[in-house]
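Work Package 3 committed the consortium to producing structural models of liganded targets before the mid-term review. Because experimental data for this complex are still outstanding, the team generated a predictive model from sequence and the ligand definition alone, so that downstream docking and mutagenesis planning could proceed in parallel. The input record is reproduced below exactly as it was submitted to the modelling pipeline, together with the SMILES string for magnesium ion.
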Amino acid sequence: MAQIELESVTKEFPDGTTAVSSLDLAVGDGELLVLVGPSGCGKTTALRMVAGLEDVTSGTISIDGRPVNDVEPRHRDIAMVFQSYALYPHLSVYDNMAFSLKYRRAAKAEIRQRVAEAARILELEPYLQRKPRQLSGGQRQRVAMGRAIVRQPRAFLMDEPLSNLDAKLRVQMRAEIAQLQRSLGTTTIYVTHDQTEAMTLGTRVAVISGGVLQQVAAPQELYRRPANLFVAGFIGSPPMNLIDARLERGGAAGDDAGPVVVFGPHRLAIPPEVVAAHPAFERYLGEAIVLGIRPEHLHDAAIAGGPVIKLPVRLREELGSEVQVHGAIGTAAHVSADAADDLRSLATIVARMDPRTKIAEGETAEIAVDTAELQFFDPASGDSILA
Amino acid sequence: MAAIRQSGRNSRLNKKMAIWALFTLMVIIAVVMLYPFWYIIDNAFRSAGQFDRQAGHSLIGWKELFANLPVAAQLLNSTLVCAASIAIILIVSTTAGFAFAKLRYRGSGMVFLLVVSALMVPLQSIIFPEIVNLGNVHLTSSYAGAVLVYAALGTPFATFLMATYYRGISDELIEAAVIDGLGYERTFLQIAIPLSLPAIATVTVLQFIQIWDDLLVALFFLPTNQRTITAGLATLATGRTTSIPPLMAGSLISAIPAIVVYLIFQRHLVKGLTLGMGK
Ligand SMILES: Nc1ncnc2c1ncn2[C@@H]1O[C@H](COP(=O)(O)OP(=O)(O)O)[C@@H](O)[C@H]1O
Ligand SMILES: [Mg+2]
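The resulting structure, written out as tokens with the ligand in place, is given here.
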């Protein structure tokens, strides 16, 4: 087992693309760290640098405290599961799994025993003599896993290992990988673009975008306290509602009235305990901010209590366990600078409501807001004000 | 409904007719291709007189062939020259092809272009300088000269073919082996070579046929006592009068190895070994 550490690791390709910039990451012994981000954000490149398949432009990668920048892949003692599985097509399932052991000069009996053990765990026993082309996608995925675990390496690197499977199999294999990793206790870096996969698998999740690390935290922490707008919008489905708003001093009543967040015709008072916990609010009074509201923190006022805003309902979607209500907010939704213009006009927010709600399309609904759960971001830097 | 059934019957009929047309065409092609072969077999078993009359068969042609040519020795020469040339071509083209396809190094594209451009140089334009050069280093008195020339002529295309084939093997497969602990040399031997057997078979068959049948290089670069069978047969036809039956008999013997080589390798030629590599 091993600890893996990346210290301001940067990768610039010869064509000038900076795929990873100044990445700091520490993976603890036996930990499953998930690296998640949209396609093209540099996840694979980061993983390949840890494996030794790609040179590091600058920075240091260490395994167990020893820098490995100049260590050949085969001497790093790390196993990698590729997105395409990369099974050896001319070898049987057994030989695919035994392959690396043979070249590490393991004893014959030991090889047989380890492959048998892996085949038992992965339920591959009936297929040991088959060639990869005679297997289904899910079985090939298992062989790829088996090839990694028979080596008993210091760490596993997995690059979107489930992305080629259909949705149902993916959920099943996801659970199996989590279980397997826990029982083996092998340090693992798991790469995915799927935030659901990241949230369900990782003990910690590292979110990257454009080659830059955005936040590393436990799944709940990422969800409840996103460090910036990117994480807020990326984690969660449907995504967090982000609205351009202002912070103002509340009412005409007196100096001690707490801040309110104002967007379009709506005003919401921020609970005093939230303000007390985050003195940074003071600095944003009278300033533009980005307000974030998770869909599940908007309720039907007839069912749940709390400060109320009134929204015309554009759409009601029945999902069985919940109802999603799309309401017009009468002001601009926050969109990042590079988003298309037509998104700006879609000034709606999504609420995930109790299925008993009677709110219907076309009416103006009274929606109760969980103001204690509101998120606030600096529109210039994108960073959370609550940090 | 009836119309649909009707059109279904029509399309089935059309399909049947198409198959028959194709079959007829194939038969015609087969006849055209096989007739010369039949002609050779038929006339190998005649004497000169029987050939003139195109009637009767005998073994006189064969006796004449063995009396005039050291057939066994020349077959051996052909085999040795072919084997040595193809061995060199395969060693160079697989390693070079793999390097061009899978290793990233400075100037790799430029060197590849150079190799490919060598494909466009016709042998006839360089054969005399070659004779002089190889003569100067005393390589025209043994197999070595011809073997080197054949290897030099065959390697560019073989390298091109191997590089193209290796490009089709996914990088991740090579990297998986590297991570599994092999290093590039053993990855080449354990993964690339077994996967490229179809390409290797293709190169072997093409080069074998080319070198076995070659006359020009064999006549110029081999000493008379080490001639290949193809060169030997050519000398049979250089007298004032040429006797056809022994030439036919010799051609028959000389064609057999090519057929054997083809039969050995043909099952690899079409086999898609890379199936099931990924998803
Ligand atoms: N060999 C390469 N040469 C140049 N650019 C590359 C190379 N490999 C990847 N990239 C670029 O680096 C960025 C990150 O790629 P990658 O790590 O594959 O992203 P991800 O795995 O997160 O989808 C992309 O913009 C990609 O185009
Ligand atoms: Mg990737």
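Reviewers should note the following from the model. The first helix of chain B runs from residue 2 to 44. These observations will guide the Year 2 experiments.
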